[in-house]
Amino acid sequence: MRIGHGYDVHKLIENRELYLCGVKIDYDKGLLGHSDADVALHALCDAMLGAAALGDIGKHFPDNDEKYKGISSLVLLKETKKLLGEHGYVVENADITIVCQKPRLAPFIMQMRKNIARTLDIDISAVNVKATTTEGLGFEGEGLGISSTAVVLIK
């Protein structure tokens, strides 16, 4: 058994769609990035790669490679799962925390969990997603960006 931790941050900007854990969320801003900038799935991929000692998301899906421009991070998650499988690992469980002041994420949590469970081919009971605010403090609290952490157990 191995544990991995991931962390990611993306800036919020206008005229961009917001995706978190593969769910499109109606909001007046989206996250800036080369792919769909799904900060939560990027943290999850990094946690998986870290647990298997396979580097990080930038190593496997570089932001200067045009084939990843605008790509769904669910595709990146699926590819990360495949990479772990090639090294003999499977995800046992995942716990993701999304940090933002707005938008309110509670209505989307179940779909987020379903997306991750389906992509990783694990039971939904092995996937937890939670959201928290910073009580108005820091870049998340000021609405400048969203951060996310993830912890996974692989075997």
Description:
- This protein has one domain (2-154): 60s Ribosomal Protein L30, Chain: A.
- The protein contains 5 helices and 7 strands.
- The mean pLDDT is 97.
- The longest helix has 14 residues, at 73-86.
- It has helices spanning 39-51, 57-60, 73-86, 109-120, 138-141, and strands spanning 2-14, 18-20, 23-25, 29-31, 91-99, 127-132, 145-154.
- Helix content is 30%, strand content 30%.
- The strands form 2 sheets. A 5-stranded mixed beta sheet has the order 4-1-7-5-6. A two-stranded antiparallel ribbon has the order 2-3.
- Helix 1 packs parallel to helix 3 and helix 3 (73-86) packs parallel to helix 4.
- The N and C termini lie close together (4 Å).
- With 155 residues, it is α+β, with helices and mostly antiparallel strands.
* Structure classification: alpha+beta
CATH class: Alpha Beta
- In CATH, the architecture is 2-Layer Sandwich
Mean pLDDT: 97
Main beta sheet, described?
A: 5 strands, mixed
Span from first to last CA?
4 Å
Helix coverage percent of residues?
25-40%
Number of strands: 7
CATH homologous superfamily placement: 2-C-methyl-D-erythritol 2,4-cyclodiphosphate synthase
Oligomer designation: single chain
Shape: globular
Q: How many domain units?
A: 1
Strand content: 25-35%
- The number of helices is 5
Task: Give the SSE order as H and E letters.
Answer: EEEEHHHEHEHE
